[in-house]
Amino acid sequence: MEFLSEYGMFLAKAATLVVAVLVVVGGIVALVRRGEGQPEIRGRLDVRHLNETYDSMAFALKAATLPKKAFKQFQKEHKAREKQREKTERRRVFVLNFHGDIRAVAVASLREEVTAVLTAAQPEDEIVLRLESAGGLVHSYGLAAAQLLRVRDRRLKLTVAVDKVAASGGYMMACVADHILAAPFAVVGSIGVIAQLPNFNRLLKKHDVDYEQFMAGEFKRTVTIFGENTDQSRRKFQEEIEDAHALFKDFVKTHRPGVDLERVATGEHWYGTRALESQLVDELRTSDDYLLAASTDADLYEITYTGKKPWLARLLAHTNEALGRI
Asked: What's the predicted TM-score (pTM) here?
C-alpha cells in the first residue's frame, strides 16, 4: 500500500509538470497565431458606449422595482426612443481619463487617445477629460498639456472635469479647457514650482570621502546631492525655479485670462467652491452628472488606449489565465 501511495504521488507530480509545460507551449502558440496576419500595432484601443451602460443600469433597476405592467410599458417606450435615436443625427462626446502620477506616465496613453479622437471627431463633437492629478515633473506635464492643446487647435470643444484633484501640473492641463468642472471639494490650483533635495556633503567630509564633479559649462549643474553647494549655485537654481514659475503663470494667463494671477499664483490650492470664486473653474459639477445629462442628446464613447505589453508579460498573463481554467 505504501508503494502504491508513493507511485500515485509520483504520477500526480508528473501529470502536473506535463500540464504546466503544455500550458506554456499553448500560450506561445496562441501568441504567435494572434500575431499572424495582423498589422503591427503598439497597443489596443478600447471603445465603450456609455449610453448602453446607462441603459443597462436603468433596465436592471426598473426590472427590480417596477410592476410587470409598468416595466413592459417602459420597455416599449425605450424601444421607441431607440428607433428615433437611430434616425436622428446626434453629436458625439468622447470621454478620456487621465490619472496622473509625479512622472505623468499616463501621457503615453493620452497622446494615443487624442490622436484616435482627432481622426474621427467632427466640429460639433466634444471631448471630456476626467482629470485626476496632483502634479509632478514640469516637462512631463508640459507634454500632457500640449496634447490637450491639439484638441483646442482643431477647434473642438474640450471640457475638463475634476472630481478629486487638479493641482500644479494637473491644473496646467485643466486650464487648457474651454470649460472646467469641479466637484465642490475637489482640490484645484497650486500654481507654483517646487524642488527639494538632500545634501550629504558634510557627511562625506566627516568620513574623509571626497566627491569630485567635472563640468563643461558654468551652469551645467547647479546644486548637487553630494557636492558642496555654493551661494552662486543656489542663486542660479532659484532663478531656474522662478523662470519655470513665470512660464507656468503665462500659460495659465493665456488660457484663463480672467484669473487674477497675483492672488492665485502663490502655490496655494483651493477647494472647488473657492476655486469657482477665483475663476479657476467654471462650474461646480461632478463628471458623472455632466455625462449623464449629456447622454440625453449625445452619444458618449469612452476611449481607452492600452500599450502593448512585452511578449513575456503577455505569455505569463495567458499562462495564468489557462491555469485558472484547469
From this structure: 0.79
